[in-house]
Amino acid sequence: MHKLVLNCLRKAAISIAIILAFGLAPLPAVAENKSIVISSGGPTGVYYPVSVAICRLYNVKYSFLGHGCTVELSGGSIDNLMQLRADKVDFAIVQSDWQAHAKNGTDTFADVGAHVELRSVFALYTESFTVVARANSGINNFQDLLGKRVNIGNAGSGQRATMEVLMDQHGWNRFDFASTREFASDLQAQALCDNEVDAIVFMAGHPSGTIKTATGTCDTKLVSITGPEIDKLLETSDHYRASIIPAGTYFGQTEDISTFGVSATMVTTSDQQDESVLRLVEVVFEKFDRLKRLHTALTNLDAVEMQKDIMPASLHDAASSFYSTGVN
């Protein structure tokens, strides 16, 4: 036993001598595990599967280095921005209009003030304001919602906040409807098909799983969102732009639907580590073609537009540096 210990000590001494003699450094320590969390949306919306697609690419490239990516469900854009402000998540997907309000401390964010640390990372796709109505409801345009049973969206969601903007634009309040409901995105289609409401409103990249469910399960139709109030909204706001939901996007949709939309954007804060932001933008643009195949809402992504589309908050320094190298 004594000889065995001496032999082990002798071998250890020889190993140390070799390292010192040849200047060999010891093996580096394993990198600190730094996983990122993306706050997304409801399970049947578009934010969630898009976040999952991004995390999937991120984990393939970085998980073996101890850098993982996970997705959290949430109530939507406003909930995400509040979570980000509270430092409970690292990144979030949000509507560009509510990104602007959070940055400036306006509208819903007036009480909490401007989020000066809010930073953009990249834009994604256009989200169109969408109304789906029961076919026999008599709803053929936005104005026809008056006196009807309408799901206006859950508190904390971008669709709810945008619906309230439209109501203000038209001079309406909740009492102008027969009733209002606040179903979350994953419950809207069922409520519509169960005849609990006459119409649902949705802010989504298309095609949307919720709207596919509604149009494929019961007799429904998409409604165009047009008129002088919408024209004025587009003229007076930098956040919105006209958009089209092409014919054939959903079952039974035989014509284009005119509406308006915003950009879905990935955001973080100035406190987020440069390395985390750089890893995220690198994997998105290095695996760009693969990303576009992971969800139908990403099919028409444009790498150049993603760097400069409607993003009210300044770019995070790491993202800005990456884009300055000429990503296309």
Q: How would you characterize the overall build of this protein?
A:
- By secondary structure, the protein is an alpha/beta fold.
- It has two domains: 36-126 and 263-323, D-Maltodextrin-Binding Protein, domain 2; 127-262, 3-Layer(aba) Sandwich (D-Maltodextrin-Binding Protein, domain 2).
- Helix content is 38%, strand content 20%.
- It contains twelve helices and ten strands.
- The protein has helices at 2-22, 47-62, 77-85, 96-104, 158-170, 185-193, 209-217, 228-236, 274-286, 288-292, 303-308, 317-323; strands at 36-39, 69-72, 91-95, 118-134, 149-151, 179-181, 199-204, 220-223, 241-245, 257-269.
- Strands 1, 2, 3, 4, 5, 6, 7, 8, 9 and 10 form a ten-stranded mixed sheet that branches.
- α9 (274-286) runs parallel beside α12.
Q: Topology of this structure?
A:
Layout lengths: L1 H21 L13 E4 L7 H16 L6 E4 L4 H9 L5 E5 H9 L13 E17 L14 E3 L6 H13 L8 E3 L3 H9 L5 E6 L4 H9 L2 E4 L4 H9 L4 E5 L11 E13 L4 H13 L1 H5 L10 H6 L8 H7 L5
Parallel strand pairs: 1-2, 1-3, 5-6, 5-7
Antiparallel strand pairs: 3-10, 4-7, 4-8, 4-10, 9-10
Helix pairs in contact: 2-9, 6-7, 9-12
